[in-house]
Amino acid sequence: MARKGSRGKRLFVLDTNVLMHDPTALFHFQEHGVFLPMVVLEELDRHKRGPSEVARNARQASRFLDEMMQGASKEQIDQGLRFPAWHTQEKGPAGRLFFQTHMVSSNLPDSLPGDKPDNNILSIAIALQQEHPNKRVTLVSKDINLRIKAAVLGVHAEDYYNDKVLEDVDLLYPGLLELPDDFWERYRKEMESWHEEGRTFYSVSGPDVNSWFPNQFISLARDRFLAIVRSVEGQRATIETVRDYSRHAVWGIEPRNREQNCALNLLMDPEIDFVTLLGQAGTGKTLLTLAAGLAQTLDDNRYTEIIMTRATIPVGDDIGFLPGTEEEKMTPWMGALMDNLEVLTQPEESSQWGRAATNDLLQKRIRIHSLNFMRGRTFLNKYIIIDEAQNLTPKQMKTLITRAGPGSKVICLGNVAQIDTPYLTETTSGLTYVVDRFKQWDHAGHITLLRGERSRLADFAAEAL
After folding, report:
1. What is the CATH topology of the domain spanning 10-158?
2. Per residue in 34-72, is it b (16+ CB within 10 Å) or e — as a string?
3. Residues sharing a CB contact under 8 Å with residue 30, sequence separation 6 or more, in sequence order
4. What does the angle CA 158 – CA 160 – CA 166 come to, to the nearest 5 degrees?
5. How far apart are CA 62 and CA 56, in angstroms?
6. Contact 285, 275 (CB under 8 A)
7. Do the beta carbons of residue 138 and residue 157 sit within 8 Å?
8. How far is CA 107 from CA 115, 124, 126, 148, 225, in A?
9. Measured on CA atoms in the order 138, 140, 146, 147, is the torsion positive or negative?
10. Minimal CA–CA distance to 337: which of 295, 316, 308?
11. Which residues lie across from 383 on neighbouring strands?
């Protein structure tokens, strides 16, 4: 897709998978032309049936095309339909949408038959290069192999970039800022401190403060100082020292490192409605989240239930149809929940009767739901856990988060290095999307967990393999 600053008008040939990935892709090419081969329309029609996300996107793309076609004559279609002003994302002149209106002779080698959709699109791109020598024709596709074939045949091809939240996942907001060693010397003159309800607050003023975010953690390793930003107004911020949960265990769980303590501060804070936890396998995301949820649901009665859901994307071959109720069908996908509940509810000193009673209680307060039945629901005073959130698209993430009603808290867990959903990457994942979009909201918090605490074997495997 065209990046800002590219000179000269270009002509982009869209593959079907781009529109099925993002129906609004039509409107993201600035002043350049967009060409849709007839085979793309046929593939959209073939994939529009069903309840899946791909089918919904195919239907939405068709609706956008129908909207643009309203009242257009054959002559206007041949000349290209100008994109409506209300859909154009960038300021400046809008581009035009062109359809394939005549047969194109095959320009492909005999080894690439033109009856395959991908080869058909390649043939059209080559023909457009010959018809428009003064324009740069670019094939836009999410299909890596199609882009490779295009490059071999001399056709410029690009991935679709507009859905990327960041250029590089390393730029993702970590949630924790390391302060320089001379922080106290630089800010001491403009600093105020006070105590309120057993908590310590500081008011800090300086030029670096305006780059801080609400509920961001700031640390000074030299002094073992760890605080959370409560508010930012211009170059002045109010920070509060965090609670040390290594001295106040949550449902029997104590943090083993600084980042885990930050996570518990976010999870236990009633003023924070949305929490995102990132980290590789074994960093304690699910265990900490469940411990905080049980403490606030069973001990504090802050929430009435814990609701857990996740994307059902298999790592290997699918196991097929699962019998039973919704919760029974979701049970194979909830191994992480069961494993962590075993840790939380079966201490060595408890009796078998006590463990059975605890499990019966938990079954009444923990609900497992499928993503497929979330539309239209509203959850009141619930503690909602979205596990494996890296496999969700931004649209699916929006659907889930907007289910939260008054008094509910949503926690998203995931590892963007383990994405199993086709066409999703570290920079386009719904988890990356919400971390970036919520970082400036006063009632959201994020932390990236760095150290694995599962076992020395798991830690070494995560680093070495």
Report:
1. Rossmann fold (3.40.50)
2. bbbbebbbebbeebbeeeebeeebbbbbbebbeebeeee
3. 2, 4, 90, 92, 95
4. 115
5. 10
6. no
7. yes
8. 13, 8, 7, 17, 67
9. positive
10. 308
11. 306, 409
CB 104 within 8 A of CB 43: no
In this chain, the answer to whether the domains covering 10-158 and 258-464 adopt an identical fold is yes
Question: What are the structural domain ranges in the chain?
Answer: 10-158, 173-241, 258-464
From the number of C-beta atoms within 10 Å of its C-beta (0-12, 13-18, 19+), residue 99 rates as middle
Distance from C-alpha of 139 to C-alpha of 121, rounded to nearest angstrom: 9
Residues 6+ apart with CB under 8 A from 435: 172, 173, 276, 278, 446
On whether the CB atoms of residues 361 and 345 are closer than 8 A, the answer is no
CB 279 within 8 A of CB 287: no
Structure tokens at 340: 């962590």
Q: Which residues of the chain have pLDDT under 70?
A: 1-8, 85-93, 106, 113-114, 312-338, 345-363, 372-373
CA 77 to chain centre: 37
Kindly report the pTM of this predicted structure: 0.78
- H/E stretch holding 205 reads strand 199-205
Count of alpha carbons within 13 angstroms of residue 362, beta-carbon side: 21
Residues 457 and 366: their CA atoms lie apart, in Å, by: 31
Q: Encode pLDDT of 64-97 as tens digits.
A: 999 999 888 989 998 899 887 655 445 556 789 9
Assign 226 to helix, strand or coil. Answer: strand
Q: Which residue has the tokens 């257009």?
A: 72
Give yes or no for a contact between 174 and 186, defined as CB atoms under 8 angstroms apart.
no
In one letter, which amino acid is 114?
Answer: G
Q: How far apart are CA 96 and CA 29, in angstroms?
A: 10
Nearest residue to 198 via CA among 248, 262, 148: 248
Tell me the C-alpha distance between 202 and 440, whole Å. 20
What CATH code would you report for 258-464? 3.40.50.300
- Sheet (strand 136-140) strand order: 81-82, 96-99, 33-36, 10-14, 136-140, 156-158
Q: How many Å apart are CA 361 and CA 368, to the nearest integer?
A: 15
Cβ(305)–Cβ(355) below 8 Å: no
For the stretch 231-284, pLDDT in tens is 999 889 999 999 999 988 998 899 999 999 999 999 999 999 999 999 988 899
Beta strands 156-158 and 305-310, pairing class? unpaired
Q: Report angle CA 53, 122, 29 to the nearest 5 degrees.
A: 60
